[in-house]
Amino acid sequence: MRLTCPVCGERDRREFTYSGAAVALERPGAEAMPEAWDDYLHNRDNPAGVTRDLWYHEQGCAAWIVVTRNTITHEVLGATLASEAARAGGGR
Amino acid sequence: MVDLKSQTPCAGRVPLRVGPLSLTEDTPEHMTAIAPYIGQDQALSDALKSAHGMAAPGTGRMTGKSGARALWFGQRMILLIGPEPEAGLAEFAALSDQSDGWAVLRLEGAGARDVLARLTPLDLRPAQFRRGHTARSDCAHMAASITRLGDEAYQIMVFRSMAATLVHEVKIAMGRVVAQK
Ligand SMILES: [Zn+2]
């Protein structure tokens, strides 16, 4: 498996550390209802199909990236810097 | 006052020779991590140029020449190798002294690329990884900085604490490549 780091280009999977669903970028506002915090902290989908995950290019440039991939076909569809996705409001 | 003697990270372990291959240590006087502040990249590059003679390197590139180099060292990070950084650079970037923190090795000779290919998943094909290209990658499971210095010459850097492991791993790979010839 290879991932394309937006900074470094296509790299071997072993350079990256997996974190989890990119929902971590969509932190609710301080005034949000408990349900929103429950979703943010605990509830995760387990999609058969396209999913967005956070990966850390640990043995590389040290960037956090959002990788879009398909869990059925194993196709890697794209990657963006997490900093840019967060600035764009979670990047959805 | 005790007069302490400084030791280089690979002291007593290199130089090594296996067939046409050599592994030697480079001991730059200073190494400084330079992290440009947001929006200050051009100003930093200009300051670097007037202070040390080289512009800031682009992603995956090295600028300068032997003795005073600027190495791309990760996302928004540059490593100045050789000179003591001019104080004025601090206006445009966060500077942190790394001088004793990294082991700097030079692997050279016919087959150097084959040795490195045993240790890192990087695409080392000469047309892909050219002279002056650099990358942060995995080298024998250690976080490394790998730079192509010449036709069959590479610089490999790891944290100082991993110097002995790196020398050990490279030495084994050198032996295997030479044994295959
Ligand atoms: Zn990267």
From TrEMBL, chain A:
A GO molecular-function descriptor: sarcosine oxidase activity
GO BP terms, alphabetized: tetrahydrofolate metabolic process
Highest taxon listed in the record's lineage: Bacteria
Database matches in InterPro entries: SoxD, SoxD_sf
Pfam families per record: SoxD
Protein name: Sarcosine oxidase subunit delta
Automatic annotation (TrEMBL), chain B:
Ranges annotated as spanning the membrane: none
Superkingdom in the source lineage: Bacteria
Pfam families xrefs: SoxG (PF04268)
Designated name of the protein: Sarcosine oxidase subunit gamma
Species this protein is from: Roseovarius lutimaris
